[in-house]
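Case study 2.
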Amino acid sequence: MTQEEVIKKENDQTFEKEFLPHADSLYNFAYHLVYNEDDARDLVQDTYMKGYRFIKSYERGTNAKAWLFKILKNSFINEYRRKTKTPRLVDYEDFIAYEDVDESSGIGSLDLRTEMFQNLVGDEISGAINSLPADFRTVILLCDIEEFSYEEIAKIVDIPVGTVRSRLNRARNMLKDKLRNYAHQKGIKEMR
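Prediction:
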């Protein structure tokens, strides 16, 4: 085996063992960023392509999940910037096809974790999380759903740990405000 073949084999093994197990988590996070299954899948695919392309900068055995989440977040930001600078084009054929789709087809989320999360917390809570500004929604999802540490979130989002704590506190307070009436309807008393 040549040196190049050995390196490729090692990279393939790293990709398979350390990167691929995080596909569902990446999709779940991407979906909460873009709210569209196709765009979320594209974002995850782009993340994996970049991850493989830059695998030599990944330190094997470290936190692959955090490394991939950072790539995904940066890809999302870059795509968002690109789209805001480019006028949106609508294809007439796509519009007609969309109008012809039977909305009762029952197409749901492809991610079981997303469905479980939505069923557990209800539409009101899921809607409240989704209505948060992106910076606050991101830290809530990374901390409370994906269970990253503050330090890992700081690396993923490129902010100091103190800012992570601050945003998480503010996000939780925003959720508390948004869900106060819902909690009263469910008979939950506010804790001080």
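The radius of gyration is 20 Å.
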